[in-house]
């Protein structure tokens, strides 16, 4: 990718995620990215109960630093690592129910079987065909809101004129250093006064090569959860406010 991908805030595009029929590919397998999956361990079927358990396990110490950045990773398969960089446009202590809450993120995959400087032909290609990001709230009253929802085809919202797409219809290339996806300034609106936190669920339908240049892919859904605490207006006003310096991880240039 010859340019750093910079995207404007985009409204959610309704796209229904469908199973991709692939020649020589396995059934679509869901994978939770809360913790890295050990190499060779098969992923299990995702259920609503699994998602609820994951939500409960993470609530509700925010994984964001005070300066507003987090970088979770998950191994898709042996030494093939998906990295999600998420950052905010203000200190997360300023995330109050009434505040203008915005976040940006980058998705990339790194093939750690070979050195970073290795030829791209030595790296397994990974494509993303659907991205769903959902924000759900936790409140003291028990009421759950969904203040943010994005369900889109990455190829339809990327503004990179040199974005690489799969010839088999598998979506957007996200293998570093030639591929990746970035979206900026996504807004979460006004929340209920008793909101304690927001759980961001990034669900990515991806297809990865079994070996470099094999042109044989396995497709699965990867989830990454990012819990963000919501602070009361009183607590936010009492918190010192040094000027933050955020350094998001840009998509590497090809």
Structure commentary:
The protein is mainly beta and 254 residues long. The chain contains 3 helices and 11 strands; from the N terminus they run βαββββββαββββα. Strands 1, 6, 7, 8, 10 and 11 form a 6-stranded mixed β-sheet that branches. Strands 2, 3, 4, 5 and 9 form a 5-stranded antiparallel β-sheet that branches. A hairpin with an 8-residue loop joins strand 6 and strand 7. It is elongated. It starts with 28 loop residues before the first strand and ends in a 16-residue tail after the last helix. The N terminus is likely disordered.
Assembly level: single chain
Q: Shape, please?
A: elongated
Structural class: mainly beta
Write down how many β-strands occur, each being a DSSP E stretch of 2 or more residues: 11
Q: Helical segment tally? A: 3
The unreliable regions are 1-47, 241-246
User: What is the CA-atom radius of gyration, in angstroms?
Assistant: 18 Å
Briefly say what this structure is.
The chain has 254 residues and is mostly beta strands. Helix content is 8%, strand content 35%.
